Amino acid sequence: MTHSDLLRTTVTVPADCDLTVRFWVRTITTETSRGDYLNVGLAVTGIPPKTRFSLAFDGGAQWRQYSMSTGTATTERTATASFLASETAGNGVTAFDVDDVTFTLS
Predict the structure, then answer these.
(1) Of 61, 76, 72, residue with least CA distance to 30
(2) In the predicted model, what is the mean pLDDT of the chain?
(3) For the purposes of burial, counting CB atoms within 10 Å of the CB of 87, is it exposed (0-12), middle (13-18) or buried (19 or more)?
């Protein structure tokens, strides 16, 4: 059975500001074949949404830090950060732990 979990939040980015999103991820799994992923995206007003990170089930049990940013613009925008964990009907289970998500304007 396939299972997915989605965590998403939207924030306002003022004009002439850059939003940086930082987060930590670790993966705990009993899987032996590919198929479980954590896709992390950042969608910004006026820019087509895209996946910034596609982390596979075999990413490792150690915590790793990642970051992504919007870049600056002359107008106010909205930015949506999303974390989509997908688990397939494989032969094990996978947990993607996401921690210490921070949003910083500069």
Answers:
(1) 61
(2) 88
(3) buried
